[in-house]
Amino acid sequence: MVESEDQVLATFCGREATDTEQTPGQQAILSPGSYMSLTFRSDFSNEERFTGFDAHYTAVDIDECLEKSDEELACDHHCHNYIGGFYCSCRFGYILHSDNRTCKVECSNNLFTQRSGMIHSPDFPNSYPKSSDCLYRIELEEGFFITMQFEDSFDVEDHPEVTCPYDYIKIKDGLHEFGPFCGERSPGRIETRSNSIDILFHRDPCPLLEPPINGKIEPSQATYTFKDQVDNVESESFQIECMKDGMWSNKVPVCQVAETEMTDNRTAITEDSNPGAA
């Protein structure tokens, strides 16, 4: 009998030359995990001289690039499997996020000086990448002013109750600001009356986190975007993640002195990092 993780994978007996019992033949048995057990049992009434069995086992590397479900892809772009693990890489023009899985685009230094041209979001008309923070600047010589005409194929994440809380486009010409724009309705034609403008295309980061009193959070960053994770270093089991809606998956826990004991003139302090502790 072959078992793995309390699951019976197969039970065999009989002879290969007959078809009256279930025998393994050339069948390969694959365990769902890294553990497998084989039980051989015989009773006291062997009527013939049975020779038993001969089996071979081998380790099979898990292909993490294929194991992940569609909802939890191993990598944004390219997944490379190797024995014992995998690593991710990105298409040309993208850089790997600190989570080593998400690919984000570098689009913060785009300067346009021609009198006419086209500007579009990364990968348009395909979905724009996660953690986008793009800055496009148009500079013309004095005597001209810039007019923007957005096409009808406008599609930026919005919210039914709050104006552009996540992703948006803003246009600044020094004195005036146009936007934020989001949703499926095109901003249409915008006359800036300036010869230089900045166009900001932004995916909203999660709010800045303040570490709890008597506690720390790591890593400490100026901004946190989609898929960034933060650990409370006083509690190994607590972790929160910046989600795609621009919100944190949980609240920062309250850390407080839970117990103080005096032993041999030394003080031992333990901390309770459970969320919502009073």
Describe the strand arrangement of the main beta sheet, using strand numbers: 8-9-14-11-12
- Output the radius of gyration: 30 Å
User: Total number of helical segments?
Assistant: 1
Q: Proportion of β residues?
A: 25-35%
Distance between the termini: 53 Å
Order of helices and strands: EEEHEEEEEEEEEEEEEEEE
Shape: elongated
Structural write-up:
The protein is mainly β. Helix content is 1%, strand content 30%. It has 1 helix and 19 strands. The strands form 7 sheets. The protein has a 5-stranded mixed sheet, with no helix packed on it. Strands 2-1-3 form a 3-stranded antiparallel sheet, with no helix packed on it. A 3-stranded antiparallel sheet has the order 15-16-17, with no helix packed on it. β16 (229-232) and β17 (239-241) form a beta hairpin. It is elongated. The model is unreliable at 261-278 (pLDDT under 50).
Summarize the helices and strands and which ones pair or pack:
Blueprint: E1 2-4, E2 7-10, E3 37-38, H1 64-67, E4 78-82, E5 85-89, E6 94-96, E7 103-105, E8 110-112, E9 133-139, E10 147-149, E11 167-172, E12 177-181, E13 189-191, E14 196-203, E15 217-218, E16 229-232, E17 239-241, E18 256-263, E19 266-272
Parallel strand pairs: 8-9
Antiparallel strand pairs: 1-2, 1-3, 4-5, 6-7, 9-14, 10-13, 11-12, 11-14, 15-16, 16-17, 18-19
